[in-house]
Amino acid sequence: MKVLRPLFLVFAAIPLALNAQVVVNKPVVLNGLTPADRQATGLALSSDPDRVMTSGVEQAGSYRVVLVSNNDGWVGSSSALSTAPIPGTHVLITAPETFPGLVRLNLNGYGPAWVMAHGDTLRGDDVEPGSMLSVVFDGTVFHVLNGRADVHRECPAGMVAISEQYCVEPNERPAADVYAAFVTCAIENKRVCSWSEFYVACTRRTELGLQNMLNDWEWTNNACNEDNSVRVVGASTCEAASTRLGTGPAANFRCCYSR
Q1: Largest CA distance in the chain
Q2: pLDDT score recorded for residue 4
C-alpha cells in the first residue's frame, strides 16, 4: 500500500524527547506482514494541504464539509481550502435556514456566485435546513450534484399530473411505428408510457379530462416475452392488452413524464 500524499510524516517510533520531524519526498511503502504492521500511527488529525491526511480525517469527510450561514445569500469557509475555490473544487455544504430567494454562495471570500441545481438556479426554500449538498465549482457557478428526493418537477405545459410520480399527455398522438414513438417522446425529454401508467391514467380519464384512451390500441414501453414484440393497450377497456410486433402495423401512443 502506498500513501498517496507523502509530504510530511512524523514517525511515532522516534523518541518524543527529540521532538523531531522527518521530511519524506518519495512514496512511503508499508509492507508489513499484517494490517497492523502496515499503518502509520501518531499522526495529527490535520487537513492542511502540506500534511499527510489520516484515514480518520478522510473517512469523516470533515476536510471538505462547509458550514454556511444566511447573509443575503450563503456564506461559508473551509480551512481545507487555502485559496479561493478553483474549477473542480468539490465541497459538501450543510444548508442553513431556508429563505425564499435564489441562492448565491460566497466561499472563502470568493463570490457570491450562483448555485445551480439541475439546470436551474437553486432556491433557498427548496432545501431543508441541515441537509447535505454535494457541490462542484466550475469556475463561474457552483453546481449541486444531488438534491431532495421529495422535490418533484412540474408537469410540462399541456400534460396532466396523474400522481406525484408522473404526468401524461391528455390525448394520443397519430399512429407511428414503435421506434418512431420512442424517438418522438425522447426528443421532448419524455417517454412512452408504461402499461401500468396507462392503466392508472385510464381509470381516471373522466375525472382528469383524458381523451381517446379506449378507442384503439396504443403503444406502451413494455416489451413482451417474444422477440420484437411490444405491449399495446386500451382498445376497449382500461384492462385490455395485447402484443404487436414492433415492425408491424403502426399504433397510436402518448408520452409520459417522470416527476
Answers
A1: 90
A2: 39
Nine-digit cell at 228? 420484437
Tell me which residue has cell 391514467.
201
Do the beta carbons of residue 73 and residue 112 sit within 8 Å? yes
Query: What contacts 139, CB < 8 A, 6 or more positions away?
Result: 86, 87
Q: Where are the domains of the chain?
A: 62-144, 160-258
β strands within the chain, DSSP E: 8-9, 22-23, 65-70, 74-76, 90-94, 104-107, 110-117, 120-121, 132-137, 142-144, 160-161, 166-168, 173-176, 191-192, 218-223, 229-233, 241-245, 251-253, 255-258
Whether the CA torsion 36, 38, 39, 40 is positive or negative: it is positive
Query: Please, what CATH class does the domain formed by 160-258 belong to?
Result: alpha beta
Q: Is the pLDDT of residue 243 over 50?
A: yes
83 or 208, greater pLDDT: 208
Q: Mean of the pLDDT values across residues 41-68? A: 64
Q: What is the per-residue pLDDT for 33?
A: 85
Q: Are β-strands 142-144 and 132-137 bridged in parallel, bridged antiparallel, or unpaired?
A: antiparallel
Q: What is the dihedral of CA 10, 12, 18, 21, to 10 degrees?
A: -10
62-71, 82-91, 184-193 — most confident range: 184-193
Task: State the burial class of residue 65 (Cβ atoms within 10 Å of its Cβ: 0-12, 13-18, 19+).
Answer: middle
Contact 111, 103 (CB under 8 A): no
Q: Give the separation between CA 66 and CA 78, rounded to whole angstroms.
A: 6
If one counts every other C-beta atom within 10 angstroms of the C-beta of residue 148, the result is 13
Is the full-model pTM beyond 0.70?
A: no
